[in-house]
Amino acid sequence: MIEKINLNNILFLDIETVAETADFGELDDEMKELWEHKTQYQRKEDFTAEEFYDRAGIWAEFGKIVCISVGYFTIKGDVRNFRVTSFFGDEVKILKDFNNLLNNHYNKPYHVLCGHNAKEFDIPFIARRMIINQIAIPDKLNLFGKKPWEIPHLDTLELWKFGDYKHFTSLKLLTKILGVPSPKGDIDGSQVGHVFYVEKDIDRIVTYCEKDTIAVAQIFLRLRREDLLIDDEIIHV
């Protein structure tokens, strides 16, 4: 029962990813060939491998993380706050900082991570990029050999599915139907690569990522039939 989980023990998160290089031409010949093979089914005959490269950020083998935003509740008596912070910039530093956060502050059995579609995307992506960058995976992300019910993470998409595994609901749709303030600003996920490589506006991406993290927390509150956060309760640190 999610109502019994202590909110103070949950780390909410969201990541933003982009293609590892600004354009397809920067890949070496072998990686170009591997990308063409990897995406053959998704592209069909509609796109060339080069035209499809703007979607490389969704694969950990061809993408990289440019921002991880996290949020956590601090509840003392009647005072409830939700603190949000982000790791951004160099990917290795992002991963090491996030690793340190988990190892130092979210390393107990009762600690859990929570994101939207995080079990399928965010968490595996982070773990794979840690391996690629030769960073030790923290216990909370080391899921080898664990059964699905042994994995210490929450997923608002999974909670909303209620066992209907063919069903997908976007974060934007779920916030709308649950009456949660929309997390989206002036960009969406498909534009993150352009904002990163062309506009070079990481602050805009961080704001977008933090809004998603807050939205995940809001959905979790709604699933527990608790009051949504108001602006005064949200603290950016």
UniProtKB/TrEMBL annotation:
Which InterPro entries does the record associate with it?
3'-5'_exonuclease_PolB-like, RNaseH-like_sf, RNaseH_sf
Name the Gene3D superfamilies for this protein: Ribonuclease H-like superfamily/Ribonuclease H (3.30.420.10)
Annotated TM spans: none
Q: What's a single GO MF annotation on this record?
A: nucleic acid binding
SUPFAM superfamilies on file:
Ribonuclease H-like
Task: Please report the stretch or stretches of sequence annotated as the Predicted 3'-5' exonuclease PolB-like domain.
Answer: 62-224
Q: Could you list this entry's UniProt keywords, alphabetically sorted.
A: Exonuclease, Hydrolase, Nuclease
Full protein name: 3'-5' exonuclease
What is the scientific name of the source organism? Flavobacterium shii
